[in-house]
Design goal:
Layout lengths: L3 E2 L10 H5 L7 H5 L12 E4 L11 H15 L13 H21 L5 H15 L7 H16 L6 H10 L3 E6 L3 H10 L8 E4 H4 L6 H8 L9 E5 L2 H10 L3 E5 L13 E3 L15
Parallel strand pairs: 2-3, 2-5, 3-4, 5-6, 6-7
Antiparallel strand pairs: 1-7
Helix pairs in contact: 3-6, 4-5, 5-6, 6-8
Length: 284
C-alpha cells in the first residue's frame, strides 16, 4: 500500500495550523485528494518514534494487572465484614486520567522522567481511592518497566524496513520520549542497536517531544539538512507537530489510530513498510 502525500505547508506557517484547521482526514482516500506536486528533498535519514511505531503498544492487560496487584496490596484487610474488592474499571480510569495529567504537566516543563510521571499517577490514584502504601508507586513502576522491557513486541515490518533503509544508505535512528532503563534493554533484547546509527531518549536529551531540543540534538548527528529527514511516528502532537517545526518531513503511522486524523503530516502510512515508497525515486 502506497503512502499518501498530503498538503505540505511552509515551515514558516504557525503551529496554530494544526490546532485550528477545520479539515480532518477520515481515510487515506480523502488524504489522496490533497496530494500536491510541490517538490521535496530526497530522504537521507529517517527518525523513528519507539512505542506505537517500531514497537506495538503494551497491551492494556499488562498495565491493568500490574495496577490492580499494586492497589490490592494497599487495600485494608477485612476484619469480620465481607471483603470489599477494588473496582477495576474505576481504578484503571483514575490511573489513566492521572497519567495524562502528569504527562501534560511534564511537557509544560519541556522535560520529564517517564518513571516519575508513572509514579505521580499512581500516588494520585491511591489518594482518590483513599488507599495508603509508601512503596506502591515504586512497586508499580518496577512491574510496569518489567512488562515493557520483556513483553513489548516489534511490528512485523520493523526489521525489513530497517533493512531496506540500510540497503539504500539511509540513516535510521530512534528519537523517543522514554527513560534509558526502558530503551536500553529493549534495544538489547531485539538486537536493534546494530541496525541504527544512533538513538536519543528524552532522558539522555533532557528534552521531550514535541519540544525542539530533542529534535535538534538528533539533527546534529546527521549530515543533511532537516528537509532531508523523515520523522515517522504515531503521535500528531509529539511526532508530526514537533518535527515539522524543525523543517523535517513527517509520516504519521495510522495503524493503531482511528480516524479522523488531523492534517499536517506529509504522509499518512498504514504500515512501516510504506516508508519504502517515500524514498526518493533516485534511491529506489
Amino acid at each position: 500500500m502506497n503512502p499518501i502525500r498530503s498538503y505540505r505547508r511552509s515551515v514558516a506557517d504557525p503551529p496554530a495550523f494544526f490546532l485550528t484547521a477545520a479539515l480532518v482526514l477520515t481515510d487515506r482516500s480523502t488524504a489522496n485528494s490533497l496530494i500536491t506536486s510541490l517538490p521535496r528533498q530526497p530522504i537521507e535519514a529517517v527518525f523513528f518514534d519507539l512505542g506505537g511505531t517500531l514497537f506495538h503498544h503494551l497491551p492494556d492487560t499488562h498495565t491493568t494487572q500490574n495496577l490492580m496487584q499494586t492497589l490490592n496490596r494497599c487495600a485494608p484487610q477485612p476484619t469480620g465484614a465481607a471483603e470489599q474488592s477494588l473496582d477495576e474499571t474505576t481504578a484503571v480510569q483514575l490511573y489513566r486520567r492521572h497519567r495524562r495529567e502528569a504527562e501534560a504537566e511534564g511537557l509544560y516543563q519541556a522535560f520529564f522522567i517517564h518513571r516519575r510521571v508513572v509514579a505521580s499517577a499512581v500516588r494520585r490514584t491511591l489518594r482518590d481511592l483513599e488507599l495508603h502504601g509508601s512503596a506502591a508507586a515504586t512497586e508499580f513502576c518496577d512491574a510496569q518497566r518489567h512488562s515493557v522491557t520483556t513483553q513489548l513486541q516489534l511490528r512485523s515490518d520493523t526489521l525489513p524496513t530497517l533493512g531496506t533503509l540500510a540497503e539504500h544508505g539511509i540513516t535510521a535512528a530512534i528519537v523517543s520520549n522514554i527513560d534509558d532503563d526502558y530503551i536500553e534493554p529493549l534495544l538489547a533484547r531485539w538486537d536493534l542497536e546494530r541496525r541504527l546509527a544512533f538513538w536519543i531518549s528524552s532522558e539522555r536529551a533532557r528534552s521531550c517531544k514535541p519540544h525542539a531540543n530533542i529534535f535538534q540534538q538528533a539533527l546534529a548527528q546527521v549530515k543533511c539538512v532537516p528537509e532531508q529527514v523523515l520523522f515517522v511516528g504515531d503521535s500528531h502532537t509529539n511526532d508530526v507537530l514537533g518535527a515539522r517545526r524543525l523543517g523535517m518531513q513527517t509520516a504519521l503511522l495510522t495503524a493503531d489510530l482511528s480516524p479522523p486524523w488531523l492534517p499536517g503530516a506529509d504522509f499518512y502510512i498504514a504500515e512501516l513498510g510504506d516508508i519504502v515508497d517515500i524514498i526518493s525515486p533516485s534511491q529506489n
